[in-house]
Design brief:
Blueprint: H1 6-10, E1 38-39, H2 40-51, H3 56-71, H4 98-109, H5 121-129, H6 135-151, E2 159-162, H7 164-179, E3 191-195, H8 221-228, E4 232-237, H9 271-278, E5 284-289, H10 295-300, E6 304-307, E7 327-332, H11 335-346, E8 377-379, H12 381-384, H13 389-399, E9 408-409, H14 415-429, H15 434-440, H16 446-456, H17 460-480, E10 486-490, E11 508-509, H18 511-517, H19 522-527, E12 531-538, E13 544-550, H20 556-566
Parallel strand pairs: 3-4, 3-5, 8-9, 8-10
Antiparallel strand pairs: 1-11, 2-4, 5-7, 6-7, 6-12, 10-13, 12-13
Helix pairs in contact: 2-16, 3-14, 4-11, 6-7, 11-20, 14-17
Amino acid sequence: LYTIKFEEILGMRNTNSSVPTNSSVFDLNKLERSVPTWNGLMLKMLTWILDSVIGYPIHVFLAKFNLVPIERVEIEEDPTFYPFWPAPNDSLLKADDVHAIEWQNEFLHNNYKGSPHFRSILDYHKKYLGKVLTPLDVVRMVERKIAQSEEQSPPLRCFTQLNIALAKEAAFQSTLRYEHGKPLSVLDGVPICVKDEFDVKDFSTCHGRSGKGEVNTADCSVVGVLRNYGAIIIGITNMHEMGMGVTGINPHHGATRNPYNDKHVTGGSTSGGATAVAAGILPIAIGSDGGGSVRIPAAFCGVHGIKPTFGRLSPHGTGFSLSSVSVPGVIGNTAADVALVYSMVANKVPDPRYFLPNSPITQVQCFADKSLSDIKFGTYTEYVSHCQKEVLAVFQDDVLSRLPNPVIEVEMEELYLNKISHMNIILSETSQNLKIFREHGSELACQTKIFFTVVRRMQLRHYMNSSRQKTRAMNMFKRLFEQVDVLITPTTACLPKQIDPASLAHGELDESNALYTMWFVYLANLCGLPAVSFNAGYSPGGLPVGVMVTAPWWKEDVLLRVAKCLETPLRKPQRHYQSLP
């Protein structure tokens, strides 16, 4: 099931423990193995065995498979539990709303429009101001487009919960505000969707599980801010169950389909949101990113996604409020749309009920700059060389060749231990959801049950050593960003895989695909760094290819500027349901 041979783990060292070094030798290839995909009846049988009396030895073996590499390494650094990084004292956020308004003015002044096949937030806003359409008209069209996306075979399966009546009521109020010339913001009347990990008033939070939970009586912080700006919540989007996967194949609600080729995955776990945006149904989706869960589906679906600095956005009212790796994120069709929505949420005083630091102001001045000549780009060639040839071709020919300055070669140490540490931390922190496993274990998909099997065997020492390695990883990036302004890599090392029909009923375990899908993204989660994925081009078969830029803590404005300058105009997808004429 897992991608390292047990005897190789034990053979990594000559003594009972080892001390990591700052060697620049590339070591992530220790995880590269040809591993079969488990799905269908074989996966179901494996899950049954693990649930039975004879499953205990396998429980222990699976846990050791994941935990031995970090368990037997001696790390002297103190552990870092939450990857907060001090912000410059002269840039701390002091006021509410002021800087979000500056972003809106910047957005309107520079006339950031969508591509020929997609509509931007500004396109919606101008239609409303010009009385060409009303928000109520748009919500009715969105309703029709969602129905069309479900009627066609195979269905896109973007949404798991809809409440069009509530959306129409909100749209009616937005229409009245435009009639009186008093929209709440440029986002007023714009339809958005939200991942099934966020509390949204009048909807249930189910984390992609089957059935319905209690109906929420309040919004989470992020959704509350957007609703106050006039955004219209259309519904809750499909996701990989419990966020434990990178394909978006959900046995309960159906696999989300890639709009560019519906035989391929969308990526996960914010799968439904990326699909809805890429299909043109609406311009913005709110998701979460704990191991690339915003950036992966954004890359696979040819759109844009941001994972902010840890602590920038409040996790209040989400399913990951205690996580040290997961943060809210934004998916959109253009870098400008992502920047606008991100800034409206980020430029708020952090929620005092949660351990969030004061955030520096998200500056807007540099976003309008069309030149990248002042930015030093870095990459690690050996790291990137493990990509599929189609991904590598787009990265080198369509992105690196356009940069104004030569790319600086950087070195990145201990990628293998960093990958294992991220996996251990995200699985350990999943234990906050063990109540769901105990109460609803029989309803969960096979893949989710197997992951919870590993979670139940994790111990404090595994989490502690992984947190010590997190300290080393953060220090590595501190040194790296003394050489360059941003790190540039592909978002994923592979194209979106084709959906195996045998995986639809029970899900799948495909560890090789998961490895290459997460090849680059996990480091930003482990270290709390901001990262943006933008559409960089397409494979010869027409599948999108994403490129990711990672910056120092709190430098989202630099990332968004790079994405804006390098983004490729979006092609019309195979499955296109544009809701705004």
